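Retro notes, item 3 of 5
We never archived the inputs for the zinc ion complex last cycle. Fixing that now. Sequence and ligand:
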Amino acid sequence: MTAQQSTCAKCGFSSEKNKSKLGLTLCSVCYQFAPNTSDEIDEYLENKIDKDSLNHFRKYADLIGQPQKKGMITKASIGKPMSRPAFGYQFQQSKLVPAQNWREVEEIFHEFLTTNISLRKLSAKHNFSVNGLKKILKNFTYIGKVRFNNQIYEGEHKPIISTTLFNHVQNKLEKLEKKKNN
Ligand SMILES: [Zn+2]
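Structure as it came back at the time:
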């Protein structure tokens, strides 16, 4: 063990106590929630979290080897802003609020649901990759929820898509993916 400080790959927290997992440096909090395969950990890292939002329960980090404490800490972190807002949102005084382009999100959901446009065409139309578009269509942020550590929680921000529209879009996406796999 060296006493050198390193920087957490998920939240940017610098500490001598940061640990290593699958070749990545993670702080004690992010380490506890990190998945165990490299595919999953890529997704985990993409979902960046602001190190300051983890501060107030960093002090519990030593305790969270125990599973029941994990749940507590996951709950404590909900509703805290991520460092990159979802498309259609922006940060205002560190709160997540709809951005000027929020209607484009609604248009995308509507168009996908009510027309037969392909994902490829729809993504090109709005300047996304197909995967980028799929991420938008599956993003719980748009119905006011927060995803953390693969669990969905009630967020503190304003939804821009109705739950009904969102659910219909999930059904259509599932059907599309089933077709592809058959
Ligand atoms: Zn971290």
